[in-house]
Amino acid sequence: ETTIQRIAAGEVVERPASVVKELVENSLDADASRISVRVDGGGTERIAVTDDGIGMSREDVQIAVEEHTTSKIRDIDDLESGVATLGFRGEALYTIGAVSRTKIRTKPRGGESGTELRLVGGDVEGVGPAGCPEGTTVEVEDLFFNTPARRKYLKTDSTEFAHVNRVVTQYALANPDVAFSLEHDGREVFSTTGRGNLQSTILSVYGREVATAMIAVDGGDAVDASGYVSHPETTRSTREYVATYVNGRYVRSSVVREAILDAYGNQLAPDRYPFAVLFLDVPADSVDVNVHPRKMEVRFGDEARVKTAVRDAVQDALLDNGL
Ligand code: ADP
Ligand code: MG
């Protein structure tokens, strides 16, 4: 293994939260209905993501950890027609494996036997049969143990955990039909039922105080915008709780954020931000999500139109509630 590979790996895997993001996306792509995320030490000591998805055979898992291998694209047509799965670059498992001690336990649905594969710094140290339930557990220990320069950039455990929490929350809110659970240092942070709607998922992740202060948004003229925003008095001092999704995918969009804040006008105290979970449905050809896949930024064809539509939809919701 060369230094060049390690640098490339570091670009995809910046911190524990990026590992969690990739593993959760893999679980969703694998048709999981339950996903549990357990981290220790903010994820720097250990990250374990368990799902009840389709699992892998012994051969599958051996191929999956190689560079640029994916089961999600078969040919160039798949690429051109737009890929429905979340991951398709085939790099995540390989790059995560290169900068940690990783253990994968997996068993295909309806399969007879499970497999355990262990990787240390990118090298396969062992593959063998394992007793495990159907689905997959990927356990990542000692992230960046072999790349001290990267390790040095990690922040405190509580900061790293805050990033992990935000990632799992984003996916839980976008997938109310999947039961998510998040544990830190052996303590449950939240769990969702997987049978719920958006409202009950908000209750699970943000708690009763926030959930009961949420106002439904359902409308938008030029753009279909729906979800929930909080009462102007239920706020936080960071914008971290404004989660926006475009066509089901979590994105960052300063246009949408500004539109939401504009809708509140002067009802928000200075430097306070609402909770918001807002889903926009836009024609695929009016949005560019490939600006930077890892930064999850989007660009709209007609920003002014989106901004007005979102602001009006949120404003209508607030007005309907006498605000
Ligand atoms: P990609 O997601 O881009 O295909 P990854 O490196 O993340 O690349 O994963 C490689 C392959 O490993 C996937 O294409 C998939 O076949 C398999 N895989 C990874 N995680 C899981 C999982 N949780 N359940 C089932 N298969 C998985
Ligand atoms: Mg992937």
From TrEMBL:
Domain DNA mismatch repair protein S5: 202-319
Superkingdom of origin organism: Archaea
Family per record: Belongs to the DNA mismatch repair MutL/HexB family.
Function: This protein is involved in the repair of mismatches in DNA. It is required for dam-dependent methyl-directed DNA mismatch repair. May act as a 'molecular matchmaker', a protein that promotes the formation of a stable complex between two or more DNA-binding proteins in an ATP-dependent manner without itself being part of a final effector complex.
Protein name per Swiss-Prot or TrEMBL: DNA mismatch repair protein MutL
Organism: Haladaptatus paucihalophilus DX253
Shown part of the complete sequence: 13 to 335 of 734
